Structures are given as structure tokens and as C-alpha cells.
Input
Amino acid sequence: MRTHRIAAIGGDGIGPEVIAAGLQALEVCAERDGGFRLDIKAFDWGSDYYRRHGVMMPADGADQLRVFDAIYFGAVGAPD
Output
């Protein structure tokens, strides 16, 4: 069975909620299809991460993402 590795970055505002709902839908698709599964890893990279660390993601963030088949990305940006 094929496994699709997905990096999920919810981001800010409504982004995390939208990403969570989308991931639920993807899981249902995988279950109903039966021919693939998902390996999802969530990253907390967004404005809150930036406030804590002074950067949007760690220095090796792009390298961390390269191992995934897809990146499911929400909204990033805070009014402040």
C-alpha cells in the first residue's frame, strides 16, 4: 500500500482549523479508497513560532520538508 507523507503547516488565524478539517477529509478518502494511507506530520510554523523564535521556521526547515511528498499549508500572517 502506498503511503503519502504530508507536512501540515496550519499557520495562523483560521489556517489551523481549515487544515485540520482538510486532513480529516483526506483521512476519510484514504479509508474509503483503501489503496493508500497518509503519514502526516504537523509543524507549528507561523506567527506564534516567529514571536517565540524570531524566525518563521528553523534554519533547517526547508531540509525537514524535503522528505515529504506534499506540504499542506494554511494561512500565515498576523495583523500585528
